[in-house]
Amino acid sequence: QVQLVESGGGLVQAGGSLRLSCAASGSIVSINSMGWYRQAPGKQRELVAGITSDGTTNYADSVKDRFTISRDNSKNTVYLQMNSLKPQDTALYYCYLDGIQRWWGQVQRWWGQGTQVTVSS
Fold first, then answer.
1. From the CB of residue 7, how many other CB atoms can be counted at a distance below 10 Å?
2. Binning pLDDT at 50, 70 and 90, where does residue 1 land?
């Protein structure tokens, strides 16, 4: 099994910064991509940012130029640096990992438990 452990959430004032981390462990032979989704109360889960194994990144339009995703392949860890935070960034942030556990296997997705980010105005 694959486990994702997130950290770094918390309460911050508008304009502040937070850095989320997500470390993957367990039986996995290849990671295709990692990233972050978020879900605010009453809203659907939405993609925030993702990064592939070769470093290609993608971002939601709402966070471009404010958030930066990065990855340490040696540690199977993905980071999300969040700057200029806004109250509308308040949500539960979930880490995900797309990868395979066996070379002949199919790509699967695993999820973290979520970390709360609250931005006060």
1. 13
2. confident
Give me the DSSP letters along the chain. -EEEEEE--EEEETT--EEEEEEEEES-SEEEEEEEEEE-TTS--EEEEEEETT--EEE-TTTTTTEEEEEEGGGTEEEEEE-S--GGG-EEEEEEEEEESSTTS--EEEE---EEEEEE-
CB atoms within 10 A of CB 5: 14
Q: Determine the residue type at 23.
A: A
pLDDT for res 102: 86
State the Cα–Cα distance between residues 69 and 115, nearest whole angstrom. 16
pLDDT digits (tens, 9 = 90+) for 11-58: 999 999 999 999 999 988 999 999 999 999 999 999 999 999 999 999
pLDDT single digits (tens) 102-112: 888 899 999 99
